[in-house]
């Protein structure tokens, strides 16, 4: 039914607003992948908490209502570029009805932690 549909907007790296109809319970990563939204390099580790490319910046009022952050997410988020006070990882945040109309911002700089680790290994 249409009642479990939640409209979410993403502002991508180019400043374009991408709008998606999401379902309750989907993660923001799943929304991007399932709807093929044009966000470069997003979700490189497919939600396994290994990359931080799903870093999203939330509006403060919505951010405060999100479920508590896990230690694992916190550790990975710490490695993301352009971290803000309202940053979370999109693969760890599930859509709720109360998020209808949500706008999240993709940081202009994304870092794939796995790539940093590889670079570290080589040097
Ligand atoms: Fe890699 Fe979220 S998709 S940490």
From TrEMBL:
MF (Gene Ontology): 2 iron, 2 sulfur cluster binding; electron transfer activity; metal ion binding
Location within or outside the cell: Mitochondrion matrix
Chief location: mitochondrion
Residues in 2Fe-2S ferredoxin-type domain copies: 6-110
KW Electron transport (keyword) present: yes
Keyword Ion transport carried by entry: no
GO terms for cellular component: mitochondrial matrix
Cofactors that this protein relies on: [2Fe-2S] cluster
BP GO terms, sorted: P450-containing electron transport chain
Keywords recorded for this protein, A-Z: 2Fe-2S, Electron transport, Iron, Iron-sulfur, Metal-binding, Mitochondrion, Transport
Family: Belongs to the adrenodoxin/putidaredoxin family.
Name this polypeptide is given: 2Fe-2S ferredoxin-type domain-containing protein
Source species: Apteryx owenii
Lineage: Eukaryota, Metazoa, Chordata, Craniata, Vertebrata
């Amino acid at each position: 039914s249409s009642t479990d549909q939640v409209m979410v907007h993403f502002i991508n790296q180019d400043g374009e607003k991408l709008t998606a109809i999401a379902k309750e319970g989907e993660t923001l990563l799943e929304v991007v992948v399932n709807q093929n939204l044009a966000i470069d390099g997003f979700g490189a580790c497919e939600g396994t908490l290994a990359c931080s490319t799903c870093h999203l910046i939330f509006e403060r009022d919505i951010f405060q209502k999100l479920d508590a952050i896990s230690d694992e997410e916190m550790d990975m988020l710490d490695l993301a570029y352009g971290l803000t006070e309202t940053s979370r990882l999109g693969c760890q945040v599930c859509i709720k009805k109360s998020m209808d109309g949500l706008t999240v911002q993709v940081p202009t700089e994304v870092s794939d932690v796995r790539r940093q680790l590889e670079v570290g290994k080589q040097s």
